[in-house]
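Thread: Newbie trying to understand structure tokens

Hi all, I'm a second-year student working on a class project, and my supervisor (Dr. K.) asked me to get a predicted structure for one chain before our next meeting. I've only ever worked with sequences, so writing a 3D structure as a token string is new to me. If someone could post the tokens and maybe explain what I'm looking at, I'd be very grateful. Here's the chain:
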Amino acid sequence: MRILLVEDDAMIGKAVLDVLRTEHYAVDWVRDGSAADAALLAERYDLVLLDLGLPRADGLSVLRALRSRHDPVPVLVATARDAVGDRVAGLDAGADDYIVKPYDTDELLARVRALLRRSAARGDPLITHKGVELNPATREASVNGQPLSLTPREWALLEPMLQRPGVVFSKAQLEQKLYSWKDEVSSNAVEVYVHGLRKKLGADFIRTVRGLGYVVPRD
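---
Reply by user tm_fold:
Sure, no problem. This is what the structure looks like when written as tokens:
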């Protein structure tokens, strides 16, 4: 799961970044409204954690622009503005939930999980191919009807490939599924997770296309 964190306070941003990454979310952190707009135009996110009091364009402007493009990404507004009118304005602008600073990190994570479950449930609940089944709403997986244990990063790598069998994903594309913009990525990270998936699904479930990347074959 990839999250965009929009927070201009360095101390709060670093703390939230660490908490989210501890839970194995890939997180991109930007510190002003203009950078948030640019990130949302350039990337697809599973959730946005959005502060309202931002430089170079406030959070409500970012939110309204996002919804004007009919982007359905869940948005959790996290701000020190605790007046009822502020909460109503955020929700009316298109926020899915609202949490007031200072907040407990356990509550923040619970709200993030709830929004991600709700978002997954709105789409096709099951992804199936060649006996492998992923349920994004419950984060459960199975192979030939038997439960399959996947690490968060194995899931992040397998899900897009299972959604588009026959499509070759480059190593760089798969790294983007696993890590945030500024993370240091080990040179063999993708190979390690592909190897783990092959041990669980069979050596030929994910094939290497020499010089191009990896593919889950259609047949």
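A couple of things are worth pointing out once you decode it. The chain has two domains: 2-122, 127-215. Residues 2-122 form a domain with the Rossmann fold fold (CATH 3.40.50.2300). Feel free to ask follow-ups in this thread.
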